[in-house]
C-alpha cells in the first residue's frame, strides 16, 4: 500500500501539470488529498478496534486502488480541464489511504511477539522504506511514461490486491489479542 501511496504522492503534481493544471491548481488538488488524510487517520482510529485490522486494511487498500485507477481513467479522458470526478477520486484516495496506513502500522507491529516486535517491525519498516524509495523512481522513469497512467496504476494496484489476498489467507487477525 505504501508503495502505491508514495508513487502517487510523488508524481501527482507532475501528472496534474502535464494535464494542463497550473502549479497552484495542482498544489490545491494534491494539498487537498493530503489534508483530507487527517480525517482518514481519525476514522481509522475510530473503526479499527470495532471492525478489525485485517478487514479495515483489506477494504481500504482495495478502495484506495479503485479510486486511484478511477482518477487515472478520468485524468487521461480529460482534454485540458481536470474533471470534478478526477479531483474527487484523488481527494477520496487521500482520505481512504490514510485510513489504511495507520491500520497497516498497527497491524504489522502486532504480528510480532513482544520480544521481537522492535526488531521485527524495524525490519519490515526498513524493507518498506527501501521499496517506497525505489517505487517513485520506477513509476516516473519507466512505468508512467511507457505504459500510461491508467495501466501503471492498474499494475501497481494489482500488487496491493495480491498483498491483500495473501494477508487474508495467511495472516492472523490481531484485534482483541493479548499482546505476548
Helices and strands, in order, run as HHHHHH
The secondary-structure class comes to mainly alpha
CATH homologous superfamily assignment: MFS general substrate transporter like domains
Distance between the termini: 27 Å
- Please state the CA-atom Rg, rounded to the nearest Å: 17 Å
CATH architecture: Up-down Bundle
Tally of distinct domains:
1
Mean residue pLDDT? 90
Biggest sheet character: none
At the first level of CATH, the class is Mainly Alpha
Helix content: over 70%
List unreliable stretches of 5+ residues.
none
Figure out the total of helices.
6
Shape by Cα distribution: elongated
Give the DSSP E fraction (strand runs of 2 or more residues): under 5%
Which secondary structure elements does this structure contain, and how are they paired or packed?
Blueprint: H1 2-18, H2 23-51, H3 53-77, H4 84-110, H5 114-147, H6 149-170
How would you explain this protein's 3D organization?
The protein is mainly alpha-helical and 180 residues long. The protein has one domain (2-170): MFS general substrate transporter like domains (Growth Hormone, Chain: A, Up-down Bundle), CATH 1.20.1250. It is built from six helices and no strands. It has helices at 2-18, 23-51, 53-77, 84-110, 114-147, 149-170. The model has no long low-confidence stretch (mean pLDDT 90). InterPro entries: MFS (IPR011701), MFS_dom (IPR020846), MFS_trans_sf (IPR036259), Sugar_transporter_CS (IPR005829). Pfam families: MFS_1. GO terms for molecular function: transmembrane transporter activity.
Amino acid at each position: 500500500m505504501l508503495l502505491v501511496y508514495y508513487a502517487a504522492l510523488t508524481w501527482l503534481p507532475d501528472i496534474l501539470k502535464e494535464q494542463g493544471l497550473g502549479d497552484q491548481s495542482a498544489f490545491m488538488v494534491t494539498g487537498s488529498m493530503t489534508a483530507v488524510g487527517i480525517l482518514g487517520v481519525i476514522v481509522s482510529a475510530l473503526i479499527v478496534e470495532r471492525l478489525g485490522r485485517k478487514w479495515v486494511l483489506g477494504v481500504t487498500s482495495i478502495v484506495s486502488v479503485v479510486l486511484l485507477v478511477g482518477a487515472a481513467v478520468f485524468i487521461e479522458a480529460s482534454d485540458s480541464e481536470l474533471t470534478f470526478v478526477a479531483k474527487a477520486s484523488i481527494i477520496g484516495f487521500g482520505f481512504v489511504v490514510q485510513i489504511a496506513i495507520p491500520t497497516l502500522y498497527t497491524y504489522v507491529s502486532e504480528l510480532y511477539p513482544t520480544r521481537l516486535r522492535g526488531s521485527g517491525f524495524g525490519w519490515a519498516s526498513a524493507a518498506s522504506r527501501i521499496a517506497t524509495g525505489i517505487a517513485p523512481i520506477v513509476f516516473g522513469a519507466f512505468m508512467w511514461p511507457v505504459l500510461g497512467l491508467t495501466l501503471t496504476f492498474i499494475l501497481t494496484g494489482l500488487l496491493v490486491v495480491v498483498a491483500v489476498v495473501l494477508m487474508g489467507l495467511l495472516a492472523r487477525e490481531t484485534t482483541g489479542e493479548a499482546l505476548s
